[in-house]
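User: Hey, quick favor. My workstation is busy. Could you predict this chain's structure for me?
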Amino acid sequence: MLNAYVTLVLLAAAGQGSYAVPPGSDWNCEDPTSQQEMNWCAAREYEAADQALNEQWSIVRAKMKARDASFEKYQPDGDGRPGHFESLLEAQRAWLTYRDAHCRVDGYSVRGGSLEPMLVAQCKTSLTKARTQELIELANSPD
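Assistant: No problem, here it is.
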């Protein structure tokens, strides 16, 4: 049977899982005392950043689709180029690939060590927060 640490490592490496309930009854992120606890806290922070990104994605997706509809209204034949949403989706998919690969490499500085999941989660948190800000700016840009 996998212990809580191994489960956390696997979930953090896969970028999946919910970290709402701590594996240890005395775990907290105010003052983590073990590497396992720090890994769990970093995973929780990434999960929150990813949730904020997904919420912003819904907003910017709707904006880009509205821009496409407006463009099509005035130029029904289009101009032969991808639309706002199609371009946004392409960029987001490329960004996700970049984020995951970049953060995997970031974690490789301690490859296989107990610190690796925390470094990967912290990297993903940082890049995800930056991408969320980019999506906010895109959604707020003039039509």
